[in-house]
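Researcher: We're teaching a course module on how sequence relates to structure. For the next exercise, students receive a sequence and then see the predicted structure as tokens, so they can try to spot secondary structure elements on their own. Here is the exercise chain.
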Amino acid sequence: MIELIATVESIQQAQALLEAGVDVLCFGEDLFGLRLPMSFSRDEQKELTELAHRYGKKVNVAVNAIFHNEGIAKVPEYLQFLKSINVDMITVGDPGVVQIMKNPEYSIPYYYDAAVLVTSSRQVNFWAKRGAIGAVIAREIPRAEMEILASQVEVPIEVLVYGATCIHHSKRPLLQNYFNYIEKEESVEKKRGLFVSEPADEDSHYSIYQDINGTHIFANNDVSLAPYLLELSQMGVPQWKFDGVLTPGDNFVKVVQLFDNARKEIEAGTWTVEKSASLELQVRELHPEQRGLDAGFYILNPEDVK
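Model: And here is the predicted structure for the students to work with:
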């Protein structure tokens, strides 16, 4: 069965997403998770978990930051909290967290997410043998390689079907350093809507913001795999991720609902090429005007991916 996995920006949006068909809510707090639409308090994380469980759904909490010594020291207490509110699973990027979870006191089922490093079935299966119940596949995987990878993995894989892709992350406060250099006081938060462009391409629009984890730069275009859902299903990729970090509000919920309708038709065997094209047009209408949309690396020739 196909599962829909979506990030969350508020309690209200979480309920709307669950009613729109989402199977797994993804959230967390900035101290432990990267590029979240919202950093939730502990009380809010408990409320989100209870909400999902009332709907018979699951939660996956982001613990995918890469930790320095002072950060990893705070992880055990957070894992104990997550266990106490009965989260279903977490997403982990730092092997140090996996090491901590060898102690049953802190152990929680986890998905492995090392961003651009997760590019082969061997990488996925390596972590499966070390307890991972699934893996988040790098967003730079072309179709031809995805098909091979999906046929050889031992645990489910999660693939981005809609949302933004981070292309650079630095722990350094690059934006704040820049504004300090030019002697200006400016907001560096996501809501500011800052972007950088290439000198030779005025149309390039790389969104950039800074938070507690450093500086994040996103690809010029966001990803939509709306035209390729049937072949993803046929490959054995049943976990579809929706990342709303740069697509806020009701439109994100509406996009997810469109994909839920597509899922139902694929599972019923009534999905067609014409319906796929219509879905892509509808998603474009709901997508933020200031952001581009394409299939990302998915349709590229593997030889062209450097």
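Model: If you want an answer key for the exercise: The chain has a mean pLDDT of 94. The chain has one domain: 1-162+223-287.
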